[in-house]
Amino acid sequence: MNLKSVLESMLFAWGEPLNISEISRILNMPAHNLTAVLDEMAEKFDEDKERGLIIQKFGSSYQITTKKENYEFIQSLLQTTINKSLSTAAMETLSIIAYKQPVTRVEIEMIRGVKCSNVVKGLLDKQLIKEVGKLDKPGRPTLYATTDEFLRHFGLNSINDLPALNVKIEEEQKAI
Predict the structure, then answer these.
(1) Which residues does 55 contact at the CB level (< 8 Å), separation at least 6?
(2) What residues have CB less than 8 Å from 56, skipping those under 6 apart?
(3) Is the pTM of this model over 0.85?
(4) Averaged over 136-144, what is the pLDDT?
(5) What mean pLDDT comes out for the span 107-131?
(6) Which of 2, 22, 93, 152 has the largest CB neighbor count within 10 A?
């Protein structure tokens, strides 16, 4: 078996982020061995400037995707419209969840100053956030965190790749 060939074929055929635990189960190989091979493959794909595909890592999942610079051509080919961007309310809520996770809806509302149950529901429906537990407090409020889909949507490898908050605040102050 040519492991790299099999992994590339699996990622291509699946078409969505494929979790390392699922790959490990299918190939009956330790996840850490597969992660090392996939990371090496991703590096080689990225180094080859002639290639139109890359392997991206989203948390513990991998996906073959097209290079960003080829987007407009692929869009024309598929004749699709650009997904509507998230509303300002959704982006604000998602930012709070990303930086403070795990966080409750009440905490989000305290920061934003407005109700956000519909926005949270929309983010759940888009699978950008997920429920990760309940607080051991009266009412047992739900805790929310971002998902691998969030990482994929924003092109991040992990939540640690988010820009530092102090940088954003300084940039906003300079703009004022």
Answers:
(1) 11, 38, 41, 42, 45, 46, 62, 63, 64, 65
(2) 42, 62, 63, 64, 65, 152, 155, 157
(3) no
(4) 91
(5) 92
(6) 93
